Amino acid sequence: MAKQAKKRASRKRTASRRPRQAPKMLSDLFLETLKDIYFAENKIIRTLPKMAKAANSKDLAAAFNKHLRETQGQVKRLDQIFKMLGKPARGKPCEAINGITEEGAEIMKDFKNAPALDAGLLAAAQAVEHYEISRYGTLRTWAEELGMQDAASLLQETLDEEEATDHTLSELATSVINLEAEADYPAAA
Hints:
The chain is an all-alpha fold. The protein is built from six helices and no strands. 80% of the residues lie in helices and 0% in strands.
């Protein structure tokens, strides 16, 4: 018993010598989430040209190329926010965007030359948009709560673009892409 008491006392002394870590605050969460979306946007920049090339529909390819240009501008806005924070602009791996883009790559492979390819590409792109809309909405709200109005404005500008892209993709899906994907599908009895 005396040995166990000595071990406990020794652990307490060791633990008390370790520097205490400051509690994580909203500003820390904001920075970590900013790194996450920075990684995601740069991954999207590498992925969109592949999706545009794979698309059968010229309209869908054009939408992907337009969003590529917007995404490059969004990364520049993120660079500005990092600068406002006095932090280097760098991302941290985002498993969510990696998973979504992997699904898109599978669709390109599994549905190559199939009538449903564009519908699958469009669905993958909308999954990306919905992820981005969620992240940018959260970041904008946190920026406002942290008193970072300039950052909040930049994030709102990007959020508006993401929502507009999602709307454009929905219009393409319902007006053309999904109809073409189901053209040869027999109607259910």
